[in-house]
Amino acid sequence: MIQVAMQSKSTIQSLVCTKCNTSYDHASIQQFATCCNVPLSATYDLVGQSIHSIKRELYSMWRYQFALPVLQEENIVSLQEGFTPISKLKKLAASIGIQSLSIKDESVNPTGSFKARGLSMGVSKAKELGIRKMIIPTAGNAGGAMSAYCAKAGIEATVIMPKHTAETLKEECRLYGADLILIDGLIDACGKKAREIAATTGAFDMSTMKEPYRLEGKKTLGYEIAEQYNWELPDVIIYPTGGGTGLIGIWKAFHELISMKAIHGNLPRMVLVQSEVCSPMVSRFQTGILPDTFAPKPSAAYGLAVPYPFATDMMLNVLYESNGSALTVSEQEMEMGVQRIAKTEGMLLSLEGAATFMAAEKLVASGWIKPEEKILLLNTGSWYKYR
Asked: Fewer CB atoms near the end CB (10 Å): N or C, the chain?
């Protein structure tokens, strides 16, 4: 295991219900807040912490250890995830009539997606708590990431994945030694099967936002964005959203940084992007409800096909608090976006990443994004994994 030198220990205080604020013991195995049937969120004692608490010689997400939940260094299971690059997209910016467009590329993470952040953290904390079996429902990338980190940690892994998922995503789970189970349906059906297996085997269920620590890994995106922007954040962040852990995590990080007086200026407006074939959060944001006609279908952007996310209220709160927005793009627009970005900027993005650019173009055309604003897109995975 990679040995990571730490400057400061974790300052975690407790886990709290995200609805009623009831406290849960972080030293015990927890999943979600049983009091209100909502996600748990970790809280930290950040008094006296600052940007000087960052271990700057570590070029991974573990540079922010003071605001992460793993207590003992020997429990960290790392493949050097995080601290991914931000690149300017000058030609694409000019093509849609804005001055500043950048992208944070999560495809360079271990296992090829942003899921490495959450699963590194989740598996590390599971190791610390003595968990020996883990199970995860996945649209693809999360299953591969958990399989890799469980292999490194010596933890037994089971992955439940839709049959229609790309063969590359299936094979990586097998190569890492996970038990792969394929079923009909979308990730909600995988989640049901995972709960059944967890109940009979005792495996810890790593379903999105139904345990508290994947969120803590994903929030390092927000810390990195702030640091890479020299503590003055972009005006708009556009995020491709399924289960919402990344969107929620970024916003959580910004609030923690505010408590340390690290951020200068306004917070960004957060934008949630989904596919037209599965857009429950866009419907809820725009109308307050899921329509009676809601009939989710598989998306070629596997990470966007989450019909019934557990953290619905938390995602909506991010959009409301940030004066943000939510919109859809079509499957065809995502494919077009991949081609345009590749031919213009020399980057092959995942369909989810391409969705953010197509959404930006729509928001510029509508006037919601102004030409002088600084826009940041998130590419959450590698194009090569979807073959």
From this structure: C
